[in-house]
Amino acid sequence: MLKKIGLFHIVPFLLASLIFVFLYHLFISDIIDNHVNIKPLKTTEISGKQEVHAGKYGNLSEVDHAELEFIASIKSKNQLTLMGSSEFTYSKFTTYKYLPAKKNYQVLGIGHAHHQSLSMLIELLAAHPENLNTKIVFFISPDWFNTEGTNSKAFVEYARPNFLNRIINDSTISLEYKEYLGQYIDSRLNEFDGVSKSMTSFMKIFIDNQTNYISLKKLKQNIKDNFKGTISKPIIENINYKLNITNTIKNSTFLNYDSIAKALQLKFISNIQSNSIYVNDNYYNKYLSNKKESILNQPNLKTNEEYLDFKLLLKYVIERKMEASFIILPLNPYYYKNTEVFLPLIDSIKLNLEKHDLPYYNLYVSDTLSYDPGILNDVMHFGDYGWMKVNKYIDSLYYGNH
Amino acid sequence: MGTTKKIIQNTLIYFLLIIGYVYLYVININTVLNPSQEEVVKSKIDFVYQQF
């Protein structure tokens, strides 16, 4: 019986597999390498006038022209782009509202919750032709490093199809970044419902560069890519932005940041009724009334995905000679009982920034004695007092006002 | 039917099955038949925003 199965099934199956592999390599393998950078067959031009010089977009799907305004903000030598996450609220003291309102500076904020290092890197890579020397401020939230990096939902939200297409088609962008994106997509493939042509191309770059990768997976990827290439001729649309950059005229209004900030701090503290951990009442009653404190996990700097994303973002920022600065947010040590476990991370970030002469404003503290009440509105998001301190720093750094 | 003939016949069947698998599952025949269909990418996992 076993002999029959072996003779009539296993042997024919192995023979069929060999024939398939032989024919595949005979007819298809010579075109394998020609598809790493698929030539764009169609170019879409997105053109328009820059109209937004203040405020923020949570993401670039918020309004039709958000993508154009983002690229314009990056390209404009007079506009400051801020990239952050959930601390980007609608308060009138946020930098992207306060400085344009009081000084007529051009400041645009991008981001909301889960907008982390990888999403920021993708957005900047998409603006590769426009981002040389751009003025940009990154808001680094330590809480990101307590996650497993950018989640797949955030990736889909921030890695817009236009952006991925633009990155894959841009031969001046180093393969290292494309491979890194390919690795991210490949590792989370099961979390995506549908995979675009550009995502497949990123994965192919990653898989092709893995010498020790499971060969079956590599073969499967090559078959997929090349059959698609020869039969359906994939079109990865190229995106071209044609922008009319506009400018506002700054005014020289004097602002006494320290006294305005102090007043905001006193107001914040005097308004708290429900707790003594310097968290505003609404937040405390909604989220903390049943959870009075929390413990942080110390990030492993060798394996922490967010930290690896951040380092690549930093590499790109340096490579493109951006006029970048970094704001490191604190965590409320009255709520997080072991904030000192994040000190190696913060020190490492600081060291990386100092090594490249990149300015930063570190507000992270590891104990309650060093904590400046009111800097956060809750456990991790800036309050008005915190924003006013940031406004002073940014005004001084980018506009020379002290 | 001779043994050799049976082996050749089964080899052919398995070869066709492999080709079919490649077309249906590896290449995804739908994208081949409809190359211009709109690409929709979604996350299967709904990450709820956590405040802390």
Question: Can you walk through the features of this model?
Answer:
The complex is a heterodimer of chains A (402) and B (52). With 402 residues, chain A is an alpha/beta fold. Chain A has a single domain (43-172, 237-402), classed as SGNH hydrolase (Rossmann fold, 3-Layer(aba) Sandwich), CATH 3.40.50. In chain A, 45% of the residues lie in helices and 11% in strands. In chain A, the strands form two sheets. Chain A has a six-stranded parallel beta sheet, sandwiched between helices. Chain A has a two-stranded parallel ribbon with strand order 1-7. Mean pLDDT of chain A is 90; it is low at 31-38. Chain B has 52 residues and is mainly alpha-helical. Chain B has helices at 3-26, 29-33, and one strand at residues 42-43. The longest helix of chain B is centred in the first third of the chain and has 24 residues, at 3-26. The radius of gyration of chain B is 22 Å and the shape is elongated. Classes of the chains: A alpha/beta (402), B mainly alpha (52). Chain A binds chain B through residues 7-9, 11-13, 15-17, 19-20, 86, 113-114, 143, 151-156, 161, 190-197, 199, 220, 223-224, 227-228, 231-235, 283, 287, 294, 335, 378-380, and chain B through 3, 6-8, 10-15, 17-19, 22-23, 26-28, 31-32, 35, 39-47, 49, 51-52. Strand 6 (192-193) of chain A pairs antiparallel with strand 1 (42-43) of chain B, so a sheet runs across the interface.
